[in-house]
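Example 9 (inverse folding). The structure is encoded as follows.
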């Protein structure tokens, strides 16, 4: 940690940088692709417009943000690492850097429970969480009456974003690609790559029946990975009413209460009456899962297959996000608001 942070509740630097992602308003946009690995992020970023040169920030905690434009539309690619906690850092900290609606698409790898070849693409419209039950006695299972793993109720993708991404994936898929495309299924996000995904290791994980339990749920559970449930869950919770942003607040963009307008408000406009509050905004989430591991055939994807798959799937998600209309250009208004008090932010004008 190099900079002084204030406020134990929601730590930030004096120039409004959030603790773990290192971002401040103006450096991240409302349309975001989130991925697990920095190499996937930089591969997708090759599709961004050459001008303005994309902004790149790698935080001390391993989060990398690339912000630029795709066909003129501002977009960010954020690499977050693995697991629910990292998804949590990402959604909460970026949310406080942005004013207005957020559109987030997770582009991540997965294991497939359905019979599709590795290199296929699955778009889950819902997701359940699988958590290791720490109250279960893993050493002496006979002493437990509860299950070793808990499976939650589903959380859901935004239906419109899911459909836009599905159409883009179908449209961008190369004609010679052998990938299958499956949409509208349920994902299971686990708190381990190993035990809670039913893999067998040298630990006494008591998970031999886990995959069978998932199939019995009759939810069409097709993929296993580690972040999508938490993304869908937080997006849903944000839509259910909010408290005010954590203090000290960033200077929020002033914007109209719904119905929104497509132009930034002008000085003296009656719509400038109050800041664009959290309660006026939404988080829309969807996911695209790239099948790296087949849990039926035990095949695993090759590096060259990964490169090709990430390239076209990344292009598809950028295309879908750039086609989404965000009625009020909140990235821009947020930027104007921040830059007026922080002139150094003007450098980032080109992205927004
Ligand atoms: C495990 O190998 C990681 O891969 C999957 C899982 O969700 C987990 O993060 O996603 P990413 O490829 O996006 O990291
Ligand atoms: N990521 C996961 O979490 N599981 C897999 O099987 C493959 C990728």
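The amino acid assigned to each position is listed next.
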């Amino acid at each position: 940690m190099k900079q002084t942070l204030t406020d134990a509740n929601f730590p930030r630097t004096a120039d409004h940088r959030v603790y773990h992602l290192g971002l401040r308003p103006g450096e991240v946009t409302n349309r975001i692709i989130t991925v697990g690995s920095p190499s996937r992020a930089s591969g997708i970023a090759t599709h961004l417009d050459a001008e303005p040169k994309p902004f790149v920030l790698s935080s001390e905690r391993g989060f990398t943000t690339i912000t630029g434009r795709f066909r003129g539309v501002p977009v960010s690619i954020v690499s977050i690492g693995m697991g629910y906690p990292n998804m949590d850092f990402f959604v909460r900290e970026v949310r406080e850097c942005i004013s207005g609606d957020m559109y987030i698409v997770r582009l991540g790898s997965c294991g497939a429970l359905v019979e599709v070849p590795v290199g296929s693409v699955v778009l889950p419209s819902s997701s359940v969480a699988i958590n290791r039950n720490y109250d279960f006695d893993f050493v002496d299972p006979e002493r437990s009456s509860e299950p070793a793993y808990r499976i939650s109720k589903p959380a859901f993708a935004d239906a419109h974003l899911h459909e836009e991404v599905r159409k883009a994936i179908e449209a961008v898929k190369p004609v010679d690609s052998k990938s299958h495309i499956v949409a509208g299924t349920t994902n299971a996000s686990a708190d381990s790559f190993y035990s809670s995904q039913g893999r067998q290791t040298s630990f006494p994980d008591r998970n031999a029946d886990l995959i069978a339990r998932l199939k019995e749920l009759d939810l069409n559970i097709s993929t296993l990975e580690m972040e999508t449930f938490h993304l869908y869950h937080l997006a849903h919770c944000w839509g259910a009413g909010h408290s005010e942003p954590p203090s000290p607040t960033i200077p929020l963009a002033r914007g109209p209460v719904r119905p929104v307008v497509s132009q930034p408000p002008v000085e003296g406009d009656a719509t400038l009456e109050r800041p664009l509050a959290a309660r006026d905004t939404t988080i829309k989430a969807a996911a695209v899962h790239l099948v790296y591991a087949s849990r039926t055939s035990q095949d695993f994807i090759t590096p060259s297959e990964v490169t090709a798959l990430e390239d076209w799937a990344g292009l598809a998600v950028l295309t879908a996000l750039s086609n989404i209309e965000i009625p009020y250009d909140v990235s821009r208004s947020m930027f104007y608001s921040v830059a007026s008090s922080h002139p150094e932010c003007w450098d980032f004008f080109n992205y927004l």
